[in-house]
Amino acid sequence: MRFSAYDPGEFYDELYEGTGQPRPESTLLLRKFASLAEGELKKRQQAAERVILNMGMTFGVYGSDGGHEQIFPFDIVPRIVTASEWEQIESGLAQRLRALNLFIDDVYHEQRILKDGVIPSELIYTSKGFLQACMGLHPPRGIWCHIAGIDLVRIGDGRYYVLEDNMRCPSGVAYVLEARQVMKRTFPELFDAYRVRPVDGYPNQLLETLRYLSDLPDPTIVILTPGIFNSAYYEHSLLAQKMGVELVEASDLVVVDGFVHMRTTKGSQRVDVIYRRINDDYLDPLAFRRDSVLGVPGLMESYKKGRVALVNAPGTGVSDDKAIYAYVPKLINYYLAEEPILPNVPTYLCSDRRDRTYVLEHLDQLVVKATNEAGGYGMLIGPQASQHEREECARRIEADPRNYIAQPTLALSRVPTLIEDHLEGRHVDLRPYVLYGQTVYVLPGGMTRVALRKGSLVVNSSQGGGNKDTWVLS
Predict the structure, then answer these.
(1) What is the pTM of this model?
(2) Conformation bin of residue 79: beta by default, left when phi > 0, alpha when psi is -120 to 50
(3) 69 phi, psi to nearest 5 deg
(4) CA 94 to chain centre
(5) CB neighbours (10 Å) of residue 275?
(6) What phi and psi, each to the nearest 5 degrees, are found at residue 438?
(7) Burial, 394: exposed, middle or buried (Cβ in 10 Å; 0-12, 13-18, 19+)?
(8) What are 198's strand-pairing partners?
(9) Cβ(411)–Cβ(433) under 8 Å?
(10) How far is Cα 162 from Cα 191, in angstroms, rounded to an integer?
(11) Strand pairing category for 259-264 and 253-256
């Protein structure tokens, strides 16, 4: 296999500076690949896929015709992040999470930011993530978002930008943990040579974050899952196993005398902390959706009285709204009196008349996103869309402008990816995971999502994307 012919093209490439010119940090990796016998890298890719199959590393695709569960696509060529790059990412993410927590707390209490006119009140009250039932709530330790997955992209200037904030129930960390195990088996000698920072401490860090929310010396912690048909059930199960906590469904929990109890083979046991992987609307049929069979009746009342901790806190989704995202640089400035370390991608709010006019006139150049959708759904990539698709999108924007934002079509950075028996560039983003407990902890690495389809900018697994291991160097 020859790598000297690899062409990074006009995009920023994470491993190459130019044709046949590896970046200093990737030289060792690419030299190792070049030393392998013809066809050996492909054999190792296939071996890695067999390991993933045996691990049962799957994800669910809603509405898929080919069966519910799919093996998570994985590419053997890792992404490399230098120590100095990671230092900036780490401090930028910690800054962002602190500011967003202060914002959520303010929104549900004094609302200073609205009174000072920094963000329009209407944007908050029309957000699907804003819950009136959470007004005046005091979550344990004053923390609303304990677990965040914040998506980053790198573009032609080599800088990292925040693409979006996932503050409700961010998924994907299981694939980070398992991808690392696969890569260690596949290239053990490279890990010794590179001094890659480990990721296997995440479950312990998560457990400490959850324990911090209880005053008890040994609190009972559970993960609340919607069940085996949820797309992230594999992750719920893996994290419960690695932390040594119970994985429960709503039918396993009951509120008695204001406290949450878990049904066990030995009788009833009080639960102190719930890491819930269920959206706000379904948490408690008495407080939110009455038709929910995934939630626990009386859970919100128990939470309000401080008798159980919920992670993340209900109402956190107001900061997840893609229209609120546009204001995060101002939030950082307002609450922390600091400039953002990681910039936002320029964003047009369709709820703003001037922005909307610009978006409708430039749909062929922009990416349009629904403010409360995830997984790549509700998105239009203007340059790749047909005239009919753009006209349909324009109609949706005019009918409900609050529900849409637009951003420039970004030239996402690429990483060499094994296609058949050779390397081709594929676009990537990066989702680091951030925990907020006694301190802010950023998992060194995160999920590098890769658009496996040639030319595609959509990295979501539900839309044909896959995963690469992310090597943060010591």
Answers:
(1) 0.94
(2) beta
(3) -90, 140
(4) 15
(5) 27
(6) -60, -35
(7) middle
(8) none
(9) no
(10) 29
(11) antiparallel
Q: What is the largest CA-CA distance in the chain?
A: 70
Query: Which stretches of the chain score pLDDT less than 70?
Result: 1-4, 58-69, 374-377, 462
Residue type, 103: F
323 pairs with which residues across the strands?
A: none
Residue type for 445, please?
G
Q: Tokens 């978002």 map to which residue?
A: 145
CATH code where residue 400 lies: 3.30.1490.270
Q: What one-letter code names the amino acid at 453?
A: R
Alpha carbons 26 and 22: distance in angstroms, whole number: 6
Statement to judge: residues 77 and 182 lie in one domain? yes
With H, G, I as helix, E, B as strand and everything else as coil, classify residue 63.
coil
- Residue 69 has what pLDDT? 61
When divided into structural domains, the chain yields a total of 3
Same domain for 385 and 464: no
131 is a domain residue: no
Question: DSSP assignment of 341-359, as one string?
Answer: SSPBPP-EETTSHHHHHHH
**Which residue carries 């993340």 as its tokens?**
312
What the block records as the tokens of 232 is: 């992230």
- pLDDT the model gives residue 1: 45
For 213-254, the pLDDT digits (tens) are: 999 999 999 999 999 988 899 999 999 999 999 999 999 999
Question: In the structure encoding, which two tokens stand for residue 154, read together?
Answer: 């790198």
CATH number at residue 230: 3.40.50.11290
Please give the structure tokens belonging to residue 15: 């491993």
Instruction: Single out the residue of 10, 346, 331 nearest to residue 163, CA to CA.
Output: 346
What tokens were used for 215? Answer: 């005053």
Q: What's the pLDDT score for residue 61?
A: 54
Report the pLDDT value the prediction gives residue 199, as an integer from 0 to 100: 97
Give the contacts of 107 (CB within 8 A, at least 6 positions apart).
Answer: 113, 114, 124, 130, 318
- Same domain? 303 vs 240: yes
